[in-house]
Write the structure tokens for this entry.
Amino acid sequence: MQVFKGVLLASGETTDITVEGSQVTKVGKTTESGLDCPGLMALPGFVDLHTHLRQPGYEASETVLSGSRSGAAGGYTALFAMANSDPVADTASVVEQVMKLGEEAGLLEVRPIGAVTKGLAGTELSALGLMANSKAKVKVFSDDGHCVHDPLVMQRALTYVKGLGAVIAQHAQEPRLTEGSQMNSGELSTELGLKGWPSVAEESIIARDALLAEQVGARLHICHLTTAGAVDVVRWAKARGIQITAEVTPHHLMLTEDLVRSYDPVYKVNPPLRRTEDTLALREGLIDGTIDIIGTDHAPHSSEKKDCEWEQAAFGMVGLEHAASVAQEVLIESGASDWKRFTEVMSSKPAEIGSLEGHGTIAEGQPANLVLLDPAASRTVTAVTHSLSHNNPFAGRELKGRVVHTVFRGKFSVKDGKVKNA
Amino acid sequence: MPLRTVLDSSDISRAIKRISHEILETNSGSEDLVLLGIPTRGVELAERIDTSLAEIDPGYVSNLGVLDITMYRDDSLDAEREIRPTQIPTSGIDDKVVVLIDDVLYSGRTVRSALDALIDIGRPRQVKLAVLVDRGHRELPIRPDFVGKNLPTSAAERVNVMLANTDGSDQVVIEQ
Amino acid sequence: MKHLTSIRELDTGSAIAILDNADELGAVNSREVKKLPALRGKTVVNLFYENSTRTRISFEIAAKRLSADVINFAAATSSVSKGESLKDTAQTLEALGADAIVIRHPMSGAAQTLATKGWISGSVVNAGDGSHEHPTQALLDALTIRQIKKSGDDLAGIKVLIVGDIQHSRVARSNVLLLSLLGAEVTLAGPETLLPKTFAAMGCKISHSFEEALAEKPDVVMMLRVQRERMQGTFFPSEREYAAKWSLSGERFKMLGNQTIILHPGPMNRGFEISNEAADDPRSAVLTQVRNGLSVRMAVLYKLMAGEG
């Protein structure tokens, strides 16, 4: 039995949490002694609907184990692993393999995402039903990294996946409008001579897919929103009653295109960093509920993929270990929202969108998946984290909030800031 | 920082006059003379010696120019230094007697640079060196032909030459 | 100053100082001994990922006039993605003794990346990166305008019109930044698809009509070299239509003032963006540009490399 004494809940209440075996058995004051947790927030373990674990295929960048360690250090108890591995997660055997690697690591729950189309090629549907019925019980499908751009393929995928009770997470990027694109399209891309990535390339796909989802009555999730216009389109779709959810990354909430002036590929990401106006609209959308969740789009790359010319470099940044601090900055430190909303965007909503049970709540009789964090602590982000890759655009920045303990199925995956060895 | 004036305005005028006389004496007249000042203060000194020569010798034909040595320096290069124009009088320097003129002679490196610069421009018959102050501490086998004042100094001291057109007044001071 | 990768690294004073030095260094080209010992013992590497014989030769002669040793390294002519990385190539060249790398690269930002990544300790000179910048070209253009217009230190009040495929032009970008820094009024002219309105933020005016722009009586008209393969398909309907609207020829050529300077960074597509008549006109300063290219590159190499010893 483990008792967390004097924790602060998102509701503001101070209480004790009792964990027995893998479950929470009591949320309330108890006379039992335990671990004193003064000043620590107890929240449901975080759930990331958008992680690239790179295994199988790119083990130099990340493995399921190293990604699990990084996730646990960031307070996560569940990660959804994107399908763009090699081989692509477009068959039952690949998703089962990923799930098995996750169980072996044992630090958090790894939920494989299946590819929408074979080989992410955008033309033929992958083995959607077989993946859903496999041991991995896939509930989220995505070609992330690529857009399912063919409207007919998207329409059929939405229709088919609806029957499986699953959701499609769309990487909204019109491919013709973004051929060779390197950064946000605007005055800065003009000056820097880098091919622009117009916001309309994102917004037009969201609008199209929202209408397709409405037509077939399916659920649709939009990955990494980046523009003010995209927030407007999602707001409009929700008002219309379309079953649409949306996600924003930590980096798009805080970083802007000005960083590209350095031509440092650590700031190269797909979709690209946008303008200040866009980050403000994204924050507003996250606070008012237009945007449902924070998804990290944790995209580790080995250093040789970034130690080169901007146009040669890979897209992507890591995110698991600072996402909670960014969420705290945007929702709490800003004074704009509260810990309940924080819990929704970091845990309960992503669990709901991903049909993931046993996460997203701290309740008696539920699995003990929780995080204890010290919101008052400040820390300087370092490039080197538990990830195998160091492509961290937040390195050197001072952020608030530190994960002290992470508990997965009743056991510490992180204790006193130290990740348990698997 | 203590300052010591070692030459005042009248000392400088006398020194210029004496150097001018010596130039004429050793050259047995002003024929074929070319005066080249080394920027910055060598240029003003050259102008004043030129004026003085004209006063002394009514037949003096002025061949006055500027020799910039920035691109020929070998000591602590300063890339922010502006390259100044080199102006060679229309007579050219081939077969002439060139008098290089600078304010202070110290290590000799500036003069070495000036000799290199000169050779890239032409082939003088003779090259002579006139300086207002020789403060010693030579690092190269170079000696002046005409000296305003020999001024034994320690390496820690600084010799500042100020001239009327460049600095507002004529004087030479030592900073310790 | 250790690198020159963008005009953004200059202020008015340092830009004028480079032009002044270039003016003085230009005099060396008319001497019998066309050599200065300023960079004796130093090594300059021309690392060219794109073919550009003119720029490469200009940098080569400039370095040699300053007594530096020059190594020409033509990197993969086809694709950079094949073969050795920029990092390895640059580090190899430095291990062989390069004190400065003059880089021409098809990707925007490559020169800045080379200068700032900490791969090498020597100087980096941008000889053209993607469609980003070509700072020495802008400096030689500014010097040419200053000499012909006898405008003093800067280019205050001089009206410069730059015409053509602005979108893909590093020459246009460097010129907008430098000429406006020096006080000139720069107007860019080109078809809408090749001249997005976002250029205005760099400090210039935008025109989509060559005739209207010429009616403003520019003091300088700079014609950009047009990559003809871009003039068909999605940017412009046809080469013929482009030439009809945007070449300096016929009636448009007649609109030029008596004192208007014609510039072109070369090599010219005679009969396409510029007519023979315009290219050979006495108002054309194309060869002065070439000569000034040498002086400007000498001044830049001297500024970056001297003082390191």
Remarks:
- The first strand of chain A starts at residue 2 and ends at 8.
